[in-house]
Design brief:
Helices cover 34% and strands 24% of the residues. The protein is α/β, with parallel strands linked by helices. It binds adenosine-5'-triphosphate. Residues 15, 18, 20, 38, 40-46 line the site of adenosine-5'-triphosphate.
Length: 258
Amino acid sequence: MDKKIITVQNLVKHYGNFEAVKGISFDVYEGEIFGLLGPNGAGKSTTLEIIETLRDKTSGKIMVDGFDLDTQPNEIKKIIGVQLQTSGFYPGLNLLELIDLFSGLYNQKVDPYALLDLVNLRDKAKSKVKQLSGGQKQRFSIATTLINKPRIVFLDEPTTGLDPQARRNLWELVRNIRKQGTTVIITTHYMDEAEYLCDRVAIVDSGRIVAMASPDQLIDELVATGFERPKEMKKANLEDVFIHLTGNTLRETQIPES
Ligand SMILES: Nc1ncnc2c1ncn2[C@@H]1O[C@H](COP(=O)(O)OP(=O)(O)OP(=O)(O)O)[C@@H](O)[C@H]1O
């Protein structure tokens, strides 16, 4: 895991007079799950959208798999998968028809059922997006990022609003995607998620990277400063109670068409 697939050097983004991204640099290695963490407004989505070629940068240099963002954005578009908001999907089409539409747009042949199997949605093939639960919608939107067989997938807060079962199910999906050799960049506000999924994380605050390493390394560094949690942790937390009582099975009753 030592080939750099993304390099970001001195990225700056101004919105008018406001400097949202203040000269950040990082590398992402091929095959890793890389997390961008940070409070609201830190500049994570701005950074992702610039790399995804969806937003202009003010300055800085970005290379994606050997392609320069300034001169070869179309080459970059071909090798990345970007998660779209499910609200943007054509409401009249079912999942099979949407996959068909996207594969036509990308000029790719895909086996729609194999794709739906990957995200555990085969039985919803004929459903429309509005008939899916929140977790199913997220899984479907991740499936659509895979249609062009991307080398890198970008996931912006993929588990926000999901229940604990659906979050854990999505974590396994992200791990599966990586297992197939795809590099994953993810933003999240959930530290347990970052700890579970990410090989490395960059913590962004007010447009700057304030730390970057593996979650383990960052925790060890903090502990080495003498930091201790203020109170003894119990052996379980409320999420453990919740999962213990309600199990790991997905709760996904189909929402009837209105
Ligand atoms: N189009 C825009 N015009 C002006 N300011 C913007 C625009 N987009 C984002 N910003 C500002 O830039 C800063 C960074 O926003 P960004 O969405 O990148 O943060 P984020 O880290 O993704 O936050 P969140 O966790 O809330 O999604 C914020 O202060 C935001 O208000």
